[in-house]
Amino acid sequence: MLIAISALTAAAFGFTAWQAAQIERRFPNLGTLTDIGGYSLNALQVHAGADADLPPIVFVHGASGNLRDQETAFLAPLKGRAELLFVDRPGHGYSERGGPQNDFPDGQADAIDKLMERRGIDKAIIVGHSFGGAIAASFALLHPEKVIGTVFLAAATHPWPGGIDWHYRLTSTPVLGWLFSQLLVMPAGMLLLDAGTRSVFAPNARRAAYAQDGATALVLRPQNFRDNARDVANLLAYVERVSPRYSDIKTPAVIITGDSDPVVLANIHSTGLKRDLKHSELVWLKGVGHKPDYVATDLAIAAIEKLAGKDRDLQALARVVEARVAGEKESQP
Questions:
Q1: Which of 144, 145, 314 has its CA nearest to residue 246?
Q2: Do 255 and 152 meet the contact criterion of CB atoms below 8 Å apart?
Q3: How many beta carbons lie within 10 A of that of residue 18, not counting itself?
Q4: Where are the domains of the chain?
């Protein structure tokens, strides 16, 4: 029995290591690592064109993600219009984790601040999706001099009832979490990845090539999985402590949220942001879930444009998005 258990354990370790290497070959690093003081942060920087009409934009992805998530949604429509910085958050994608301060959104906001300095970006519009919204809020709170404005997309920023999924709690523990991520996450994750990404987009249809274009499998690598779990496990206590300070944020913001988000409760987080941020606009999208960055990319870009000083009627554009979403649902088999 002991021999059999040892053999199965060794096989599981071997499979995880082999599969992690396969995932990295399939999704090589698109960015460049930059030392920000003892560890390196990875980012893809795309320079503005000669006819750029927007200020620099920094994109911050959500939980279980990497820079490709926002790059896939925004690079093509914005290329040339602004200096674009797509960031792998600490411990995600190809970024190193750094110290224990990066277990919390304020530490990660500080890391992005240092990255911007080293990449020559003095001030930017910050775009944060989901968990990235907590970091974007912390960035606006701690580094207001670097912020032109903030776009919150289905942002997780406020205390919510209940807790988190059991696997985040388990994985964030020191010993059992390490064993779980080394032995079980990879085989289970490969089986569940397709359904999981579809559920994130629900009730909207997932983009067909999203799993490939967004390189979602990168999160299944053991260290990446554990870092992501620590992020999520620490978020509730963090926003309980920090969200009362959001009223100190003076820079403008646009909050875009779907009313059918199964991941982040819009009536807690997005309405909380609208309440707390004096200079903000809340844009509701009927029939839209957790991925307005993909389902309403044109609206998100219009929000960026409005923060850059352009005249944009975001509420009217939201109605156009809703009509398109309703039509797509009716055409689904």
A1: 144
A2: yes
A3: 11
A4: 31-328
Predicted local distance difference test score (pLDDT) of residue 97 = 98
- CATH architecture of residue range(s) 31-328: 3-Layer(aba) Sandwich (3.40)
pLDDT at 10: 76
Determine the Cα–Cα distance for residues 37 and 122; give it in Å rounded to an integer: 18
Nearest in space to 253 (alpha carbons), one of 80, 126, 81: 126
Q: What span, in angstroms and rounded, lies between the C-alpha atoms of 142 and 162?
A: 28
Query: How far apart are the C-alpha atoms of 231 and 41, rounded to whole Å?
Result: 16
What are the CA-CA distances from residue 250 to residues 4, 110, 276, 279 (Å)?
62, 18, 10, 7
* DSSP-assigned states of every residue in 220-246: GSHHHHHHHHHHHHHHHHHHHHHGGGG
For residues 133 and 143, what is the distance between their CA atoms, to the nearest angstrom? Answer: 15
Q: How many CA atoms lie within 13 A of 181 on its CB side?
A: 24
* Tokens read off for 304: 């960026």
Query: CB–CB of 148/94 below 8 Å?
Result: no
Q: How many CB atoms neighbour CB 230 within 10 A?
A: 20
In whole angstroms, give the CA distance from residue 155 to residue 300: 13
Q: Is 324 exposed, middle or buried (0-12, 13-18, 19+ CB in 10 A)?
A: middle
- Contact by Cβ (8 Å): 47, 80: no
- CA 168, distance to chain mean position in Å, is 16
Q: Which of 302, 246, 257 is nearest to 134 (CA)?
A: 246
- Binned average pLDDT, 10 residues per bin, the chain of 333 residues: 64 91 98 98 98 98 98 98 98 98 98 98 98 98 98 98 91 93 95 96 95 96 97 98 98 98 97 98 98 98 98 98 93 71
